[in-house]
Design brief:
Layout: E1 9-10, E2 16-17, E3 19-23, H1 52-66, E4 70-74, H2 84-92, E5 95-96, E6 101-102, E7 104-109, H3 114-124, E8 128-132, H4 138-145, H5 150-163, E9 168-174, H6 183-193, E10 196-201, H7 219-229, E11 232-234, E12 243-247, E13 253-257, E14 270-273, E15 278-280, E16 289-290, H8 291-296, H9 301-312, H10 333-336
Parallel strand pairs: 3-4, 3-14, 4-7, 7-8, 8-9, 9-10, 10-13
Antiparallel strand pairs: 1-2, 5-6, 11-12, 12-13, 14-15, 15-16
Helix pairs in contact: 1-2, 2-3, 3-5
Bound molecules: S-adenosylmethionine and iron/sulfur cluster (SF4).
S-adenosylmethionine binds near residues 200, 205, 333 and 338.
């Protein structure tokens, strides 16, 4: 219906916005310390969560109406949502008007269910997978995720590789004193398995409120420690937040995401949709725009488009983590969608 007549979404700082993160559930089968509380988080009612049809309608508006070229499914844990391949099939057919190519559809998962569904996700049109894995040591894995599922996640990574996902990226949240002694182990793991580690700086989005600056392992330190063992060289790349490096011996690549020590806000092209249909222009945004209300009151595509444009008009220049004027958002990571 939008054919070629899309309108690029430009924010007040002249950044082109074209990447949508969709949280499809607030629920999760893990309780990672840096994300969720051990217990007591109040789940959304099932009827409050957007249906697949509602998600697909919004996704179509972003892709066909605003020429978005990337969508990432996240959560909570996206694989706890029943019939996930059905949603993937609905989204993977969306065509980006300016390129006439399918949207780049990705997902971030804790990997624990991939043995069961990786192949179906691939067949349904999922292009890329990031799998979270914070430790290769079963005890530390359990301490960080509050679950004893290291073997399942490792098997999930194998299932993703066998299903043909390439590259498989491994998300590692680095926390000082917890898993920072494993930096080089993760590099070796990535080289052996042909997967790409992406080391993420710990952000103040943990439900327990235990974040502090001294728990952040700076991306520079991570690169230096790997470079001492496996020499690296930087990759010149586009607006993505990861700083990428390849091994000089050609054995693959790593990424570091310096969200805290070197925020990439100046290049940010992302916006987010929460599981209950709130539209947010930053992980740290305080303002939320209710798209579900428009969807469920019989609103038109035009009304949705106008609300999205209004929201993007409020996108700020960047967050201020670590500075005195930083305001911690009311939602934790699993309630926004990382
Ligand atoms: N459940 C899925 C998973 O864990 O991959 C998807 C949702 S999770 C919120 C998305 C990503 O955010 C994961 O890679 C997770 O490690 C990361 N994350 C969660 N809390 C974080 C925090 N406080 N700081 C940095 N990254 C965080
Ligand atoms: Fe669940 Fe992912 Fe949050 Fe861990 S990081 S608690 S797996 S949503």
């Amino acid at each position: 219906m939008f054919s070629k007549s899309f309108t690029p979404l430009i924010d007040p700082f002249d950044r082109r916005v074209r990447d949508l993160r969709i949280s499809i559930t607030d629920r999760c089968n893990f309780r990672c310390t840096y994300c969720m509380p051990e217990e007591g988080l109040k789940w959304l009612e099932r009827t409050d969560i957007l249906s697949f049809e509602e998600i697909a309608r919004l996704a179509r508006i972003f892709v066909e109406g605003f020429d978005f070229d990337g969508i990432r499914l996240t959560g909570g844990e996206p694989t706890v949502r029943a019939d996930l391949p059905v949603l993937v099939a609905k989204l993977s057919g969306l065509i980006v008007p300016s390129t006439n190519k399918p949207v780049d559809l990705a997902m971030t998962t804790n990997g624990s269910s991939l043995r069961l569904i990786a192949e179906r996700l691939k067949t349904a049109g999922l292009n890329r997978l990031n799998i979270s894995l914070d430790s290769l040591d079963p005890q530390i894995f359990q301490a960080m995720t509050r679950r004893n599922h290291l073997d399942k996640v490792l098997d999930g990574i194998n299932a993703a590789i066998e299903a043909g996902f390439d590259p498989v990226k491994i998300n590692i949240v680095m926390i000082r004193g917890m898993n920072d002694h494993e930096i080089v182990d993760f590099a070796s793991f990535g080289r052996d398995k042909g997967v790409q580690p992406r080391f993420i700086e710990f952000m103040p989005l943990d439900a327990d409120g235990a974040w502090s600056m001294d728990k952040v392992v700076p991306a520079n330190e991570i690169v230096e420690r790997i470079n001492d063992v496996y020499p690296l060289e930087p990759v010149v790349h586009g607006p993505e937040p990861a700083q990428r490096f390849t091994y000089k011996d050609g054995m693959g690549e790593i990424g570091v995401i310096p969200s805290v020590t070197k925020p990439f806000c100046g290049n940010c092209d992302r916006v987010r949709l929460t599981a209950e249909g709130k539209f947010m222009t930053c992980l740290f945004a305080i303002d939320e725009f209710d798209l579900r209300k428009i969807l469920r009151s019989g609103g038109s595509d035009q009304e949705l488009i106008e609300q999205i444009e209004t929201a993007v008009g409020t996108k700020w220049a960047g967050h201020n983590i670590g500075k005195v004027n930083f305001i911690r958002p009311p939602r934790s990571m699993s309630q926004i969608g990382g």
